[in-house]
Write a structure and sequence with these properties.
Blueprint (H helix, E strand, L loop, with lengths): L1 H40 L17 H8 L1 H33 L5 H13 L2 H12 L23 H25 L4 H9 L4 H12 L1 H15 L4 H6 L11 H11 L3 H26 L7
Helix pairs in contact: 1-12, 2-12, 3-4, 3-6, 3-9, 4-6, 6-9, 9-12, 11-12
Length: about 290
Amino acid sequence: MSDMLKQERRRTALYGWMLLSPALVLLTTFAFAPTVATLWQSLFSAGTRRRPPAFVGLDNYTDLIADPVFWRVLGNNLLYAGITVPASIVIALGMALWANANIPARAFVRVAYFTPTMLPMIAAANLWLFFYTPGIGPFAFLGLGSVNWLGQPDTALWAVIVVAIWKEAGFFMIFYLAALQTIPPDLKEAALIEGAGRWTYTRRVVLPLLMPTTLFVLVNALINSVRLIDQLFILTKGGPDNASKLVLYWIWELAFSYFDAPRAAAMTMLVLLVLCAIAVVQFTLIDRRAHYR
């Protein structure tokens, strides 16, 4: 009897490893192995033909912390994330509530909200580059045509933030709209019978039921806030005077413009550590308030 039980356990374990093996191979190939390689590279100096890379330990990390550009880029990214993440989520939720209501031309409203998401980022950035062009863009008809939005340190980052919110809100709206359509209509009828108004029903019923979707959207919004690079190539290239330079663009610049791959690897590891810490906070604090049933 014990031998049969052992064989059953082995068979169950084998089935489990067979189910996990595709994801494990993909994660090892595209996540775990590159992370270990990046960590190892960050511990060496940038080599040349005459001078091979040498082990320097944590010197690349200390050099980054001592670099004033690091703190400027970090401040830019914190401001960018602090504005785009909550603004995109709130606007997406508002658009989803509006698109889910019984309004005329509801299908047209949904398509209009989702249209910015369907545009490639390069095309969207070129479109907004025309909008921001002084004198000839649409803002000139509003009396704002003389402002060089992308060429001034005080406005460049804010101009990039506006483009990011415009691009991401429609994408997040799709998730909220799908979640709203899964809420049973009986809940709304019961709330109306109890005398609850629209705001009370939204605050006490809809928003708690949308917490799993909000957690998912929040994780994606935070990831997007540190991986923006393509529209910076078109709009500002991180300028003027590093005013709109963000983390991923600076990592690319370190690796491919300054040919300092070890410092870029060190910066990448710092970003990964920050993202891991944020993920732990999200799934320990926010996940407790999520209603999955």
